[in-house]
Give the backbone structure.
Amino acid sequence: MSQSHFPSPLVTKAHALINACRHHEKMIVTAESCTGGLLAGLLTEIAGSSAVVERGFVTYSNEAKTELIGTPAALISSHGAVSSEVAHAMAQGALRHSRAHISLAITGIAGPDGGTPEKPVGLVHFATSWRSSTTSPIEGTHHFEARYEPISRSFIRTAALDTALELLAESLRRI
């Protein structure tokens, strides 16, 4: 058995989430900006995750957010890519562009540059959306804002993974 390059506590949480989704026959889709696909990578680190991880979108650029998951360019322009509004749109768009039951969107400023007083390095917006079946409309969306210490880019992205796993588990309990 090979060693994971993700921290052991994250792998343990991901394993529990994958098992819970498998038990409830629910699939996940991710839409990631500042984490650049790390969440999808963490989830697929778990054997058997193909029954649960439907797909992952890496929407690092504003164009990718618009082209891949339908985030309105006007929304990004008016609120900024790092905002609750864009996180909501990303989560809903990822769900609409997949066959999953639960989506998780992440958009933030991992640094070390790019922060402002209003949107500092370490600000990350998350949103989850859910539906009970793959053909039903979106039943709910939840937003969560985190402000991590700007210790390092790696620290912020790893902390975001931990939060994302918690939010996915919470969404699974909602459906």
